[in-house]
Write a structure and sequence with these properties.
- This protein has helices at about 20-30, 35, 45-60, 110, 130, 135-150, 180-190, 195-200, 230-235, and strands at about 1-5, 10, 15-20, 40-45, 65, 75, 95, 100, 100-105, 155-160, 160-165, 170-175, 205-215, 220-230.
- By secondary structure, it is α+β, with helices and mostly antiparallel strands.
- It has an eight-stranded mixed β-sheet with strand order 5-4-12-1-13-14-11-10. Strands 2-3 form a two-stranded antiparallel ribbon.
- It is globular and about 50 Å long.
């Protein structure tokens, strides 16, 4: 089985769509759609993912089913309730004298790297951020739906690998988001999602590809062939979007802090 995770184009988060640049990126991605072999397509319910998918779907004549669990990973933390965690989120914004709920994984490196539980595939669930948010509940909901999806293709979760009840060489493509992609990959690879959220920055319209390996009959593991590929942007002379990244050097005030 082969799975493609395609992140949406450069986002206009306010209107949940794409920027002008995002539309250019999606158009360049569509030029590669035939060679990618998208197979059966699924899309997040959010506008920026649907708008990105539309380019590839028009190019290939495919359709896409909307899966609600492909929306951007929704876990949030309320720093008004948990002031002890404010040091972990130094960029938290305030409105009307209250902290706006924050994406739970978007933590300062100086905080999470010094707490070993965030690196652990099990202990991250006991971390302070997890205990003070709905991260674990949301993670389990999403990964349960993902496993039910894989069961339909013949792959049954068994401890930390997948039992093959029915072999499949089909391809499925998820048009979705950075955060949810990291969640699903962390589940496939049995690692902490915090490790992926902070170690990768999958650029808009990037393509991540994983395939099953069945080195023993009846036992499958998903292996990455490419992570965050943006070769279609280079081919079209389109600069890679900075979305998902933070400033390379702190003194550069033009880049996201």
């Amino acid at each position: 089985m082969r799975i493609l995770f395609i992140r949406h184009g450069d986002p206009d988060y306010v209107h949940d769509t794409l920027t002008e640049k995002g539309h250019r990126e999606a158009g360049l991605l569509a030029k590669r759609a035939e060679s990618l072999g998208l197979g059966t397509c699924y899309v997040s319910p959010l506008g920026r993912a649907k708008d990105t998918a539309a380019y590839c779907l028009r190019q290939t004549g495919n359709t896409a089913e909307t899966l609600d669990w492909l929306e951007e990973f929704p876990a949030r933390i309320d720093l008004n309730r948990y002031p002890g965690l404010r040091e972990a989120y130094p960029g938290a914004k305030i409105q009307n004298n209250r902290y706006i709920p924050r994406v739970v994984w978007d933590m300062a490196p100086a905080y999470w790297t010094e707490h070993e539980e965030y690196f652990d595939s099990v202990r991250w669930r006991e971390s302070e951020a997890a205990r003070c948010s709905d991260a674990v509940e949301r993670y389990d909901q999403v990964t349960e739906r993902f496993d039910r999806f894989l069961e339909e293709y013949g792959y049954i979760r068994e401890n930390r690998h997948y039992k093959v009840e029915r072999e499949s060489k089909e391809t499925v493509t998820f048009f979705c988001h950075f955060g949810i992609t990291c969640v699903l990959l962390s589940h496939l690879w049995n690692v902490s999602p915090f490790l992926l959220w902070h170690s990768f920055a999958f650029a808009p319209t990037s393509v991540t590809e994983v395939v099953t390996e069945e080195r023993e009959r009846g036992t499958a593991y998903f292996r990455g062939l490419k992570l965050g590929d943006v070769s279609h942007l280079y081919a079209g002379n389109e600069p890679v979007s900075f979305a998902a990244r933070f400033c390379e050097i702190y003194s550069d005030s033009q880049e996201r802090h």
